[in-house]
Amino acid sequence: xxxxxxxxxxxxxxxxxxxxxxxxxxxxxxxxxxLILLGVVCAAATFVESGRGTxxxxxxxxxxxxxxxxxxxxxxxxxxxxxVRFPWKLRQAGFLMTHxxxxxxxxxSVQTYWSGVEGQLxxxxxxxxxxxxxxxxSQLTVLPPGxxxxxxxxxxxxxxxxxxxxxxxxxxxxxxxxxLRVLRFLRHARAxxxxxxxxxxxxxxxxxxxxxxxxxxxxAARWLPPEQFDFQAKAGDEIExxxxxxxxxxxxLPHARRETTYHSLEDASKRSExxxxxxxxxxxxxxxxxxxxxxxxxxxxxxxxxxTPRGPLxxxxxxxxxxxxxxxxxIDFERGTNPGRMGNASxxxxxxxxxxxxxxxxxxxxxxxxxxxxxPLTYGKxxxxxxxxxxxxxxKEMSILSVAHDPGRLLKYAGSVLTCLGIFVxxxxxxxxxxxxxxxxxxxx
Length: 445
Prior knowledge:
It contains 6 helices and 19 strands. The protein is α+β, with helices and mostly antiparallel strands. Strand 13 (303-308) and strand 14 form a beta hairpin. It is elongated. It starts with 11 loop residues before the first helix and ends with a helix. 15% of the residues are buried. The mean pLDDT is 85.
């Protein structure tokens, strides 16, 4: 006769071990130690941030695995403090609400960290765009020989706040025969461009010209690229100008090529606001392998053409871009100034939503919306805030919108409300109920 096996309950030893670990995690001493440690770390990070910048502290502290581990341990401490009191009683309501609220805040913050989006959307009046630029991510874009624009290959990465040490490249998996390796990454770089002799004899002419003042002193000197140099000259030639000024040809190259060198700006005091990142990239396509330097977001130095047996390969270095399911068109941008035109008082953008799919709130599609600093536009899961503007060379103004998606917002709001309610219950309702019970006991006594 077949015997029926019964599920054996956990042994008392296992239960005691689990209980010991749960009580250890729920320890008030552990909570105090973690809170003190987090406070010290945040205070130290504030001082480091003043010298090294927000990006440095974000990378090495707030986004680091060890800091996330401290917060996770604190979350386990809060959860364990609730579980060891199970089954719960009504008098513990305030305690449970406070702990559950803080847990909700932490979980919502984690959700925002992993799935949140922060970027910028820029467009001039009359332009339509659906591209959001992510400022914390870099992107290398490759257009292989013979490919269309919509067949570009994107390789994204986060370079971090400091220069990469030599000998530690980042290699991307081979995609459609193209292999990319980032050999060097300079977080803040300065590019120096000069013209050198082209040994192949195919390069155009270039000259280094100096401006000489009436007193014979050199005022300035610079290289004139081929597009600005269209006359025959030789070193030592001089061109007389009005007012006693003259141009002197310091160097002349009948065949020249542009050579750019990149220098790291590790000293923060020497950086300008426009100091951008630069990378040394190795590109392999079939038998062709070439190393090129690129500067992020630069219209000239950020794009390189590499000749291969299959045809030209184009390489671009910029910020990672996110494509929205709909587009925004800037109808009008207005900039208000303070009295006396001293400084900007306000910015506002009138935009038109274009969503041909009509999947999200169709009544809002193609209706004008005005975005100001304190009145953002929310459409779908993204919120658009008026952030800044930029004056263009043609007299137009470009509006810059901040774009955000915070999936943990509701959980963080709910956690904040629950925490406040729990504190109210603990410090107001419970003492009041206790005083009422004592008064009734005295009356009966």
